[in-house]
Amino acid sequence: MNRQLFFQEINRSLFRGKLNNRQREGILYKLAAFDKFDVTDDRWRAYMLATSYHETAHTMQPIEEWGKGKGKSYGRKLKQSGQIYTWPDQIYYGRGDVQLTWFENYERMGELMSLPLLEQPQLALDPDISAQILVEGMILGKSNRGDFTGRSLEDYFNHHRDDPFGARRIVNGLDNAHTIAGYHYKFLEAIRKAS
Question: Is 180 exposed, middle or buried (0-12, 13-18, 19+ CB in 10 A)?
Answer without folding.
Answer: buried
